[in-house]
Design goal:
Radius of gyration: 17 Å
Number of helices: 10
Shape: globular
Structural class: alpha/beta
Low-confidence stretches: none
Length: about 220
């Protein structure tokens, strides 16, 4: 018998807020500035869904530690400017949240500071306040299971009874590694085939989310 779901764990960027398109654009720009030409597809493959620490290490390996520190600072500045210029919730997300009755939380590769900014800017912070978890709290970021296991433990729910909503390859891999089922949102920057896999249902419209979650409740 399959355990019914008791907790829905949301990723933040690209699932709650439409910020991944901003991040991809900024990273392509910074690649040009720092002499590391990157296409959008390369940015999605290398950066999207991974922790800030993992991305920093990758940039440092390519450009050196000093340049990576400046790269990070510039990214935060440009990303914040773009967020303030018009970040919105993912299309259909607010209506979906209004229809979901199960407990929810957020588990993101981003820092708490970044989530306070993006979720605050879109009016979503109050919906999850006190139930927001960051990769900065664990030893390994996605695709390792640490963050999702930390969120489940903090919420007092068995991992087998958690459902993760993700939009990146590392994110769905982390959910599987944690022993959780996943819904892969393909309406953003990551192609559906990069989300597909065991225990994962792929969808492309947030308005479908309440019905998909209900199917796991038995």
């Amino acid at each position: 018998m399959i355990d019914p779901i008791e907790l829905v764990i949301f990723d933040c960027d690209g699932v709650l807020v439409d910020s991944e398109v901003i991040a991809v654009r900024v990273l392509v720009q910074l690649g040009e500035e720092y002499g590391w030409p990157l296409t959008e597809a390369e940015v999605i493959e290398k950066f999207v869904g991974r922790s800030e620490a993992a991305n920093h290490a990758m940039v440092a390996e390519r450009l050196g530690e000093e340049a990576a520190t400046l790269f990070d600072k510039r990214f935060r500045e440009l990303h914040a400017e773009a967020v303030d210029a018009g970040l919105t919730p993912v299309d259909g997300l607010v209506e979906a949240l209004d229809a979901i009755t199960l407990p929810t939380c957020v588990a993101s590769s981003g820092s708490h500071e970044k989530m306070r900014h993006t979720l605050g800017r879109t009016g979503l912070y109050g919906r999850f306040e006190g139930r927001i978890f960051s990769a900065t709290e664990v030893g390994r970021g996605k695709p390792a299971p640490d963050l999702f296991l930390h969120a489940a433990r903090s919420m007092g729910v068995d991992p087998a009874r958690c459902l993760v909503v993700e939009d990146s390859g590392p994110g769905v891999a982390a959910a599987r590694a944690a022993g959780m089922r996943a819904l892969g949102y393909a309406g953003g920057v990551t192609a559906a085939e990069r989300l597909a896999g065991p225990g994962t249902v792929v969808f492309d419209d947030m308005r479908e989310l309440p019905g998909l979650i209900a199917a796991y409740q038995g």
